[in-house]
Amino acid sequence: MMIDVDPFFQTLQHLLSSTNQRCGVVLHGEIEWKKQQASKLIQLFSASHSAMAFQLGGESVDGINQHVTHKQGSQFLGKECSLLICDFEDGFDANSFNSAVGAIVAGGLLIVFAADLDDCDGSHEWLKQHLMKLINLSQDGKTPSLPKLAQSNRSENYLEQREAVQDIVRVVEGHAKRPLILTADRGRGKSSALGIAAAQLMKTRTLNIAVTAPNPLSVDPVFRHAERMLDLCVSKKNQLAFQGSRLTFIAPDELLSGEVEADVVFVDEASAIPVGLLKKMASSYNRIVFSTTIHGYEGCGRGFTLKFVKWLRNFRSGTRQSQLMQPIRWGENDWLESWQYGAFLLDVEPVSLSALQSQQLDIRAISSQEFLQKPSLLRACFALLVNAHYQTSPNDLMTLLGDTSIRVFAAFSKEIPVACVLAVEEGSLSEDIIDKVEQGTRRPKGHLTPISIIGSLGITQAARQKSLRIMRIAVHEELQRMGVGSALLEHICSRPSYQYFSTSFGMTLELLKFWQKNQFQLIKVGSKKDPASGCHSALMVTSECSDWLEQAKATFSHSIPYALTSYLRLLDPSIARELIKLTKVKALDTREHQLALSYTKIGKGYEVLAPLINQFIYSLPIYKLDLVSEILIAKVIQQRSFKFCAHHYRLTGRKQVEAKLKENLNDLA
User: Fold this and answer.
1) Which residues is 475 bridged to in the sheet?
2) Confidence label for 585 from pLDDT (cuts 50, 70 and 90)
3) DSSP states of 256-279
4) Sequence-distant (≥ 6) Cβ neighbours of residue 173 within 8 angstroms
5) Contact 38, 61 (CB under 8 A)
6) Is 640 helix (H, G, I), strand (E, B) or coil?
7) 266, 314, 255: which is closest to 533 by C-alpha?
8) What is the mean pLDDT of residues 374-403?
9) 626: left (phi > 0), else alpha (psi -120 to 50), else beta?
10) Please, are residues 329 and 80 in contact by the beta-carbon 8 Å criterion?
11) How confident is the model at residue 92 (pLDDT cuts 50, 70, 90)?
């Protein structure tokens, strides 16, 4: 017998309206029945407060104001609705879903069209468990009980936000070199504060404001709030112009190119940008705001608060900090926000280790089934991953639980996980697939390492072998640099079921040296920088039973001199030095050696002797390469201009640059 849901919906709507709370309803039944109930709710909410209704996934329900696919929830960023319908029949994307849920205002409702999850993997099982914690309404079931919702006041006095706007404006109007750190949880008005401050500044002066973030979509609210306050402004993609002022989105890597002129820089979602890039931004711009979501789906690496903020306070003693605690879009202690944090582990924090000893390690693999049976273990391991990596997101949680090729290993001290590795099985490809990969007609999902080796090195053996690629490695902050990560890697790489092990990461000097210390060999560097990390990707491999590895190393070695004058020309010279160590170049004979060094003593021009100086550097023994200065690498190896070298190393011009080159060559003689 079909239940009469109208009285239930009316009571629920009144409860949400009176308490300023948000909650969720999961509908189970035939699709037409689900759509009918959703339409009733749209009419009910519209009658009371002209609600906006959004939909994520599925076929559009009657009365919906905006509808996007299940992967496009980020299009709701900065927008508000009272009803959000999420149809899981077409699929589920955790990042997209969490983006969309943030649009629901106080008194609003999440409506989920549940998919059939009976035959499900670990991620679906986890999702199913948490959906059961919402209000579940079945077509042929009983009317469920209403949740007990406490009064949750939604403040109309945005005092915190107004103070944050004043703090942002003060970065421009006050003394230079006094950065602002602005932190908040989702829905606290952080992005709108940036937009309001930008508009106020553009009204009162002529200036260029650069706003950067990992993704231009995430700063749409900044532009929208600024545009709302600026009459007759000119808006185009990624830019807002008002009189003589401009607000422009600049990708993180472009911001550090040395070609961007900005009076002030707004760095939004800073925790989703690598700490190394944030440091370069702080060093390059004297007026800068670092804004970030603390517990966010955008990628919430705690390296921002643990490492960067501490560094910034030491680097800039005038650093100020502002935190937005008061929700604007919904009330305090919101029921749906609490559910969201629990379901997607948005608020996990590593435990304090105080008395633990790194030597007392028990290392073992953990299955997704064990994680489902022990949610506290899952929270502890995921907290390590979030803490260590700037891009860990809810989708990673779903992958960890649901992908059968994923392997998780953890190091325990006193039964508490202190380090964690997320890895994926690759390889064992058939000859037919390998042939198609070689021809460029197929690229099977996953298998990043073997496919990359075929494409860039022409080696097919790697695709036939079974391998394990290490995707993430995380060590508790209190135990870093104590050999814990290396011990975990040694345990994993001793497993006989794999013929080689690999890793791919945004290449920094610190990470490169870590993997080299653990016997991984560099065999490829990506030709393009990742826009968010600003780093070239590195592919590294270790193996005791793969004869193709020496071939791979040799082929990569031969490519390095060309790469450092072309697509790696802008690579940090400290990393370029490590690449030079991997090359094998014929040494200069005595006459050529003397001729190269004659540049330091006689008046012959740099351009005449540069090729010999270049070969001299490449042929140096490794211990001497550590003495090669960055300016010598930038000028001679990467062939940067004298103008660049003078500007970058703060010299007056070519004459001083050449003096530095000669000084370093004398030290190497």
Assistant:
1) 419
2) confident
3) TSS----SEEEE-SGGGS-HHHHH
4) none
5) yes
6) coil
7) 255
8) 89
9) alpha
10) yes
11) very high
Q: Are 255 and 137 in contact (CB under 8 A)?
A: no
* The residue type at 123: S
Cα–Cα distance, 219 to 238 (Å, whole number) = 9
Sort residue 513 into left (φ over 0), alpha (ψ -120 to 50) or beta.
Answer: alpha
């990359």: which residue's tokens? Answer: 452
Band of the pLDDT at 546, cuts 50, 70, 90? confident
The CA distance from 63 to 50, in Å, is: 12
Could you tell me the sign of the dihedral formed by the alpha carbons of 586, 587, 588, 593, in that order? positive
User: Rounded CA gap, 354 and 362, in Å?
Assistant: 18
Q: Identify the DSSP state of 633.
A: I
Specify the pLDDT at position 96.
94
| DSSP annotation of 409 | E
- Sign (positive/negative) of CA torsion 42, 47, 48, 52? positive
**Residues 604, 598: Cα–Cα separation, whole Å:** 8
Give the position of tokens 């209704």: 53
The predicted structure's pLDDT at residue 452 = 95
**What tokens were used for 325?**
């605690």
Write out the two tokens for 408: 């998780």
Residue 14, token pair as written in the block: 């009144």
Written as six digits, the tokens of 502 are 């690999």
For residue 375, give both structure tokens. Answer: 């949610």
Residue 220 neighbours by CB under 8 Å, 6+ apart:
77, 78
pLDDT in tens, 453-478: 999 999 999 999 999 999 999 999 88
Return phi, psi of residue 134, to 5°: -85, 180
CA-nearest of 255, 261, 216, 252 to 237 is 216
Banded model confidence at residue 269, pLDDT cuts 50, 70, 90 = confident
Interhelix angle 448-457/431-439, rounded to 10 degrees, is 50
Q: How far apart are CA 10 and CA 602, in angstroms?
A: 92
Model pTM?
0.87
Q: What is the mean pLDDT of the chain?
A: 90
Residues 6+ apart with CB under 8 A from 474: 384, 385, 387, 388, 389, 419, 420, 421
pLDDT, tens only, 23-59: 999 999 999 999 999 999 999 888 766 679 999 999 9
Q: Which DSSP helix (H) or strand (E) runs through 665?
A: helix 654-668
1 band by pLDDT with thresholds 50, 70 and 90: very low
- Cα 41 from Cα 16, distance rounded (Å): 13
User: How far is the CA of 155 from the CAs of 161, 162, 466, in angstroms?
Assistant: 11, 13, 57
Q: Within 10 Å of residue 499's Cβ, how many Cβ atoms?
A: 18
Q: Name the residue with tokens 């490829």.
A: 524
Quote the CA–CA distance of 538 and 506 in Å, as a whole number.
6
Phi, psi of 502 (to 5 degrees): -140, 170
Average confidence (pLDDT) over 163-188: 92
Residues contacting 298, CB < 8 A, separation 6+: 214, 215, 218, 269, 271, 272, 393
In a 3-state reduction of DSSP, which class is residue 505?
A: strand
Measure Cα distances from 10 to 14, 38, 83 in Å: 6, 13, 14
Give the list of residues 6+ apart from residue 7 with CB closer than 8 angstroms, or none.
none
User: Which residue(s) pair with 266 in the sheet?
Assistant: 211, 289
